[in-house]
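FORM 7B: Structural annotation worksheet

SECTION A. Query
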Amino acid sequence: MLPERLLDEGAAEVIVSDEEDVAGRLLELTGGRGAEFVFDAVAGPGVAELARAGAPDGTLFLWGGQSGRPTPCPGFDLGMPALNMRAYTMLEITRDPRRMRRATAFITSGLRTGFLRPVVDRLLPLEEIAQAHRHMESNTQFGKIVITVPH
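SECTION B. Predicted structure
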């Protein structure tokens, strides 16, 4: 059901990592070239598989460590491809006023034009914050859980 919902919300393609060869599918989708940018929130040993799907001079962004396991440098195992690998945090944007203005303008423009469309799972009043946490911990939401605060 999730792939269909993602496609309905505008995803061009969906790769279900538990069911598909992610690198193979990315290479197929890019005509064998690989992805210019790969974002990995999991890290750990699986980073080597994602690196295999990177384009020459592509960049593998590590922005999370959900695996909790050591993350190898995949270049050695892959024969030293021209691959950039770097950590990323949103603080790179939020702590730099110039970059923050650019990001804000991009998001504002995207929302205004409809290019970006937030997906809201549900709205809950602040009084139901415990229910919101339970729902989030159930991992069944699709989109953001928004808490409304009276003003």
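SECTION C. Observations
The longest helix spans residues 97-113. The radius of gyration is 19 Å.

SECTION D. Sign-off
Analyst initials: ____
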